[in-house]
Each structure stands twice: as C-alpha cells, then as structure tokens.
Amino acid sequence: MTTTWKIDPAHSEIQFKARHLMITTVTGHFSSYSLLVETEDNDFTKATKIEFSADPNSIITGEKGRDDFLKSTDFFDTAEHSLIIFKGTKLEKSGEDYRLSGALTIKGITKPITLDVEYGGIAVDSYKQTKAGFSITGKLSRKEFGLTWNAVTEAGNLLVGDEVKLSCEVQLIKG
To answer: pTM (2 decimals)?
Structure first.
C-alpha cells in the first residue's frame, strides 16, 4: 500500500554553510520549501517518490544585503530560476544509516548528488499524527551549478568558498 508523507515545516529546517574569506563560515537557510515522499507502507527504502523543492527567493543568511545579492543574476538568478529541485532516485542502507541518491537542479543545471541520511524513527505526536524524522547532510560544488561569482581580496583570499555543506533536519507527516 502506498503511503504519502509531506514535510512538517514547523519542525524542519533546510540549511547550508559556505566559507567566507576562507576563515569563517556563513550559514543560511530557506524558509519556503516542500517535500513529498511516497513509500510502501512505512519502509522508506522502498520509496517510489522523493521530490523536494526550495524557493531561492526565501533565502535567509541574517544579512539582507547578502540575501538580495544571492537572489541576483550573479548567484541564484531567482527571476529566471524560481526553484531548486531535488528528485531522489534511491535510498539504501549504509551501515547504521542510509545514503540518498538523486538529481539536484540549481539554475537549470542538473547534477547527481548523494546525501547521508540518519533515520530518527517514527513516532505519533499528541495530535495523533504519525511522523518520521531524518537528519540529512551532504556537500556540493557551487560552481558545478553555475554559482561561479567570486572576488579576490587584496591579500589574495577568495571571498566565497566553492564547497557548500548541506544540513537538513526533516520531519515528515504521514497522510
């Protein structure tokens, strides 16, 4: 029997981290996103659909000027590319945890990506909703997705690192 799961945005977060000046890390997140998962019963390794999207216009780094710049044509070009999309193709056991493979599309460029997934389990909340929890991590090269803008400081340091680390806490609601 097919079971549908949707993200619980009140108990989930989609974060990323990138190096700034190669000496510190800037953290950001998306406030508007969706995730739909279809499984056979409650077995996530038999998922028939894993579809995630985030609105890059909802990016928040804690600095409005930087957020506006990230939405510009120099980075996400949100006027032309309104969604970041991930379509999962396979969730497989890897030791105690899982590996999620799929295709990530940013700025119209699609590349394969594999993410590490820690399954937290299934629980029923006080509203009698069945929920499943996951911690998802991974990394990508922003340049592979056309996010190539950078600058060099007087000291010769790059302003923004290429590697972007992903960190997501996801709670799904059954039904």
So the answer is: 0.92
Given a contact cutoff of 8 angstroms between Cβ atoms, the answer to whether 112 and 140 are in contact is no
In the 8-state DSSP scheme, what is residue 157? -
Q: Cα separation of 65 and 44, whole Å?
A: 40
Q: pLDDT at position 159, please?
A: 81
Question: Where residue 22 falls among pLDDT bands split at 50, 70, 90?
Answer: confident
CB 30: neighbour CB atoms within 10 A? Answer: 19
**Are the beta carbons of 42 and 121 closer than 8 angstroms?**
no
pLDDT for 52-92, tens place per residue?
Answer: 999 999 999 999 999 999 999 999 999 999 999 999 999 99
Instruction: Name 145's Cβ contacts closer than 8 Å, sequence gap at least 6.
Output: 104, 106, 107, 109, 111
Concatenated DSSP letters of 58-77: GEE-S-HHHHHHHHSTTTT-
Structural domains of the chain ordered from first start: 2-174 (2.40.128.110)
Percent of the chain with pLDDT over 90: 83
